[in-house]
Amino acid sequence: MRVGVVSYGIYLMHTLCFNAMERIGAKLGIDNGLLLWVLGMAVVYVAAEISFATFERFFQSFRPRDTHAQSSGAEAVART
Question: Is-contact 61 35, C-beta < 8 A?
Fold first, then answer.
């Protein structure tokens, strides 16, 4: 699911986007909280996608590549 890929961006952007939607809604005279929440979620997702495409993917290129699957701590304990 794509949300899992951009979840860090959602975490970073949600407060900024929801605050912006509240201010825009107030200026436009929209007082329907549900409508603002739905629009805010859409804006958050788009902002997270843009963040992933521009920042996160760039910085992930510096991450070392692991060719072997790392075992979890539980598997390591079970083998000892």
Answer: no
Rounded mean pLDDT for each run of 10 residues along the chain, 80 residues in total: 83 94 94 93 94 87 72 53
pTM, to two decimals: 0.70
Q: What is residue 52's DSSP assignment?
A: I
Residue 3, C-beta contacts closer than 8 angstroms, at least 6 positions apart: 10, 45
Assess contact for 13 and 44: CB atoms under 8 A. Answer: yes
CA contacts within 13 A on the Cβ side of 66: 4
Identity of the amino acid at 51: S
